[in-house]
Amino acid sequence: MHPAAWAYYSAGAGDEVTLRRERDAFEKLLLVPRVLRGVDHADTSASVLGAPIRAPIMVAPTGVQGLAHPEGECATARGAGEAGTLMAVSTVSSRRLEDVAAAATGPLWFQLYVYEGARPFAETLVRRAERAGYGAIVLTVDAPRWGRKERFLRVEDELPPGASAVSIEEELGEEAREPAALTPEDVAWLRSSTGLPIVLKGILHPEDAALAVEHGVEGVVVSTHGGRQLDGVPASVEALPAVVEAVAGRAEVYMDGGIRRGTDVLKALALGARAVFVGRPVLWGLAADGAAGVGRVLEMLREELELAMILAGLPDLESVGPDLARKG
Ligand SMILES: Cc1cc2nc3c(=O)[nH]c(=O)nc-3n(C[C@H](O)[C@H](O)[C@H](O)COP(=O)(O)O)c2cc1C
After folding, report:
1. pLDDT digits over 225-258, tens only?
2. Is 258 domain-assigned?
3. What SS3 state is found at 5?
4. Is residue 41 among the annotated active site residues?
5. CATH code of the domain covering residue 160
6. Which of 17, 165, 167, 263 has the fewest CB atoms within 10 Å, counting from its CB?
C-alpha cells in the first residue's frame, strides 16, 4: 500500500488516545466461560433489520477504497457477499453506489454524510440508494467537522491517484467539503424522506441514543469512528452498555471500533450489541487480495467467533448473556 494511503487508513485523530483505547478496552475485558454443557459446535448465524447474515460481523463504511485496490468498493462488496454478510457503503466511495450494488452478492446499507450547503445532494443520494436496492440508510452523526488525523495530514499531498470520491465529485465538484452540523430536525427530515430503515452511526451518550429512538430510527451504532473524530472519548465497547440500557430493546444496537478477533466480537455481544462492524481489517484484506482478501478476513473472524463460542459453552447467539464478560 502507498505510505500516504496507509496513513489515511490507519490514523486516528489527535494523539490517538481513543484509537489505542479501542484495543486496550477489549484486552481488559475478560470472558468467563461455562463448561460441562456438551457444546461441540456453535451456530454464528444472526440477522440485522431482518437481513440474515452468517455471523454478526459486518463491513463498516470506510471511504475511498480505491486506495487499497483498483476495484475498490466493488471488490469489498463481493468479498462481504462471499462471507455471507452485509456491507455498509460510504458516501465517500471510489465507486458509484449503483456499481457497488451491481457487483454485490449480499445485502448493502448506504452510509450517508450530509454536506454543508448541499442538503439536496443528500436527498439525491437517498433516492439513488433506494433505487439501487440498498436495505437501510446509515446516517453518520459524529462528524460536524472532520477530525484532525495528524499522521495523515502530514502526507496528504502525496496521496496517489485512486483517491477520488466519485459520487461526491460528480455532484459537488472537487473542492474539499465539510459535513453539516446535524440536528434532530435532520433525523426527522430523513425519517419523512425515506421508507428505508434508518441507523444512526456515531452514538456514545445514552441520551443521544434515547433521542435517536424517539425519532423512530431502527438502529444505532455505538462508534468513535475508529478513533478518528473527537480524541479522548471512551472506547465504543466501554460506551456500549449504557447505550444498550437507554435503547431498552426499542432499536437494534451495533458497535464498531477495535474488533480484531472473534473473542472481541463475543465480548461486544455479551455487553448487548446485536452485531459489530469491522473497519480497517477489511481494508487490509482488500489491499492484500481484493474480494478474496476481504472474504478471508471476515471468514477468519467468523471462525474465531465460532471457536470462542464453543470454548465458552455457547451453542448459539441467543445463549450469549451479560454474565459472559467482566472487567479485568
Ligand atoms: C479509512 C477509514 C475511512 C472511514 N470512512 C468512513 C466513512 O466514510 N463514513 C463513516 O461513517 N465512517 C467511516 N469510518 C469509520 C468506520 O466506519 C468505523 O467506525 C471504524 O473504522 C471502526 O473501527 P475499526 O477500524 O477499528 O474497525 C472510516 C474509518 C476508516 C479507518
Report:
1. 999 999 999 999 999 999 999 999 999 999 999 9
2. yes
3. helix
4. no
5. 3.20.20.70
6. 17
d(CA 45, CA 38): 20
Q: Which string of DSSP letters, residue by residue, matches 244-299?
A: HHHHTTSSEEEEESS--SHHHHHHHHHTT-SEEEE-HHHHHHHHHHHHHHHHHHHH
Q: Express each pLDDT in 154-164 by its tens digit.
A: 999 999 876 78
Q: Exactly one of 2, 69, 205, 225 is catalytic; name it.
A: 225
Predicted local distance difference test score (pLDDT) of residue 160? 87
* Closest approach atom of ligand 1 to CA 19: 26
Per residue in 10-35, pLDDT tens? 999 999 999 999 999 999 999 999 99
> Which residue has a Cα nearest atom 10 of ligand 1?
61
Taking residues 53-67, what's their average pLDDT? 98
- Ligand 1 mean position, distance from CA 272 (Å): 21
Spatial contact of 95 and 286, defined as CB atoms under 8 Å apart: no
| Residue 201, marked binder | yes
Residue 179: CB within 6 Å of ligand 1? no
| Residue 299 domain-assigned (yes or no) | yes
Q: Find the 136 Cα to ligand 1 centroid distance in Å.
A: 18
Our count of domains for the chain comes to: 1
* Res. 170 pLDDT band, cuts 50 70 90: confident
Do the strands 137-140 and 108-112 form a parallel or antiparallel pair, or are they unpaired?
parallel
Protein residue whose Cα sits closest to atom 29 of ligand 1: 62
Asked, for residue 328, whether it belongs to a domain, the answer is: no
Does 90 sit in the ligand 1 pocket, CB within 6 Å? yes
Q: How far is the CA of 36 from the centre of ligand 1 (A)?
A: 40
Question: What pLDDT, on the 0 to 100 scale, is given for residue 58?
Answer: 99
pLDDT of residue 178: 86
Per the annotation, does 9 bind a ligand?
no
Q: Which residue, by CA, sits nearest to atom 20 of ligand 1?
A: 226
